[in-house]
Design brief:
Order of helices and strands of chain A: EEEEEEEEEEE
Strand content of chain B: over 45%
Number of strands of chain A: 11
Strand content of chain A: over 45%
Shape of chain A: globular
Oligomer: heterodimer
Number of helices of chain A: 0
């Protein structure tokens, strides 16, 4: 079955760039959405962004100015770069495979479009600490 | 800010039925499908419910999801000790143009 493995430095200095990779094994990286999510200590989950295998990206507006996600289909890998990090970026970073799509519902006689996005395969996560 | 609101904690005894709520708005739950993730202590989140109350292979049918208006619920019947975990609702938000998570609910099995 498909497995994901995050890799990268566990310690990053303030103002520098955090760089992580996620290697996809047991399946193809093609035709899926590949996300990065983080979880600050003792806190909830925060979606960072995703990339489709075509290279199109979508980022959380709160992080958009500092985030770059890229994909290397030849290596079955995708990567995250987060620039100008501060202590607030200390977190466990997860990569995950996503499915996105949509459809229509009939609500009180009106056709309503809906969207879905779920992440069905997750890496184990890697802890990144921002500290000098 | 957190767009999906969950109670921070819930509890139940073995065998009991527990419901965890998730409150959103017309730009997320009100229009789009809801997912639920289970995060056991020290592990990565795991997809529990997706799309229209679908369960991935291996997830017991004790777990079910429902939605009404701008709120969603996760029902766990026949509560077991191994269900003790954090549970997160999530879904697509049209305003954010991306997925959003609830703040999470810590379920304790007494």
């Amino acid at each position: 079955q498909v497995q994901l493995q995050e890799s990268g430095p566990g310690l990053v200095k303030p103002s520098e760039t955090l760089a992580l990779s996620c290697t996809v094994s047991g399946g193809s990286i093609s035709s899926y959405y590949w996300s990065w999510i983080r979880q600050s200590p003792g806190k909830g989950l925060e979606w960072i962004g995703y990339i489709y295998t075509s290279g199109s990206t979508n980022y959380n507006p709160s992080l958009q100015s500092r985030v770059t996600i890229s994909v290397d289909t030849s290596k079955n890998q995708f990567s995250l770069k987060l620039s100008s990090v501060t202590a607030a970026d200390t977190a466990v970073y997860y990569c995950a495979r996503g499915e996105r799509g949509g459809g229509t519902n009939m609500v009180r006689g009106v056709i309503i479009n809906y969207s879905y996005y779920y992440m069905d395969v997750w890496g184990k996560g890697t802890t990144v600490t921002v500290s000098s | 800010q957190t767009l999906l609101i969950q109670p921070p904690s819930a509890s139940g005894t073995p065998g009991q039925r527990v419901t965890i709520s998730c409150s959103g708005s017309s730009s997320n739950i009100g229009r789009n499908t809801v997912n639920w993730y289970q995060q056991l202590p020290g592990t990565a989140p795991k997809l529990l419910i997706y799309s229209k109350n679908q369960r991935p292979s291996g997830v017991p049918d004790r777990f079910s999801g429902s939605k009404s208006g701008t709120s969603a619920s996760l029902d766990i019947s026949g509560l077991q000790s191994e269900d003790e975990a954090d549970y997160y609702c999530a879904g697509w938000d049209d305003s954010l143009n991306g997925p959003v998570f609830g703040g999470g609910t810590k379920l304790t099995v007494l």
